[in-house]
Write a structure and sequence with these properties.
alpha+beta; Cytochrome Bc1 Complex, Chain A, domain 1; 2 domains; 16 helices; about 20% strand; globular
Amino acid sequence: MSLLRYAVYVCLFLYGGVALGETVEFQLKNGVTGVHKFTPHTQITTVQAWIKTGSVNEDSKNNGISHFLEHILFKGTKNFKPDEIDNVVESHGGVMNAGTSKDYTTYYITLPVEHAEVAFKVISDMVFNALFLAAEIEKEKPVVVQEIQRKFDNPTYDMWREAVALLYDKTPYTMEVIGTEDNVNSFTTESLRKYYDTYYHPQNVTLVVAGDISEKETKALAEKYFNVKTTAKAGKGYDGKWTPSIKKSSSKSYERDVAQDYVLLGYQVNATAEDAPVYDVLTEILSGGEYSYLNKELKYDRELVTAVSAGDMLSKNAGGYLVHMITNPDDSDEAVKAFDEVIAKFTDKGLSASDLQKAKNRLKSRVVFQQERAYSDASEIGYSYTIDQKDYYNRYINSIDAITMKDVLSTAKAIFTAPHITYKTVPSAESSTEER
């Protein structure tokens, strides 16, 4: 599965003996796109707002503003005092959270269906009526700065950070979602308000409602709480053209206080999120389980790695593919060599038709299980709409079924025969001496 995105799936299956309803799209006059999915007999409802903005719409001067804004929207709105939102949601039996990515920001509440209106009221107030209280902004800065500092606790952070920057070279996808300390400390009521008014615009909002709530009630509550008026102009998201730019393979090592070797192989791919199905099937084959192709070959047969995983980084307008291996000290070079041999064998011989079908069945079964949760269903719809691939939600399963071994092998060859990066984090001389 993707390393940086929600997988986007759909499957028509029976829940409690009643076929799940299909998605219904509707538009509010102010530009908000609404999507309703009826899931009967669940007795719960999830309400989600997906905003078409994330770190991809930032630059070096305001990098981190999307993530910081996500924090601030919990700190005071027109109808809710600072820190009141969580209490209101929890008192009605709900759970709430939010998340920021490169392409989007999302807010969700899942709660008993009889309290669905609470979710509409809270999320709409956050998305359209935030207050940006100066005192709350200053209180939140140290919280986010601590988050930023914690990333350095990971000894492989530098390797991952530089790899992503190189794979997404010359695009704003190099911007880290969490941002920088200097930027966070510089944010003001005015700068946050300007970004908010530009990107938290009704035309950039997709409201997704899934669960045991009728289409009629959904539309009525959406009209009541989300059809706000605005005179602001909607900010356009990044939509640049991007093609792979790595012309020559390269390698780099980082010495850190670690006990094992960590290897990261990075490949640029001329693909985006809409191309995910074939990449998902390839990933399922390579590392979809304990006895997947790479685990069998590298972990069990050759005993060269203690862990191996693979996955795509397909964003709305750029793409990459990563392979991560953990080895015993000094085994990383041999593991990389063995990986190349294993991939060459795979791209030459492939799998049998039955093994391919097994991989596709495993992938599809996870889709079905995810659909049993209104939250997961809504998330898949929201992601699909936010990357402007709304039909993707409805064609994912059929796309998986249509993939052939020839498709998988041509994709694998395109990935693994291209120039790439090999980054390693290895034990420093000091840590090696201490172990001895």
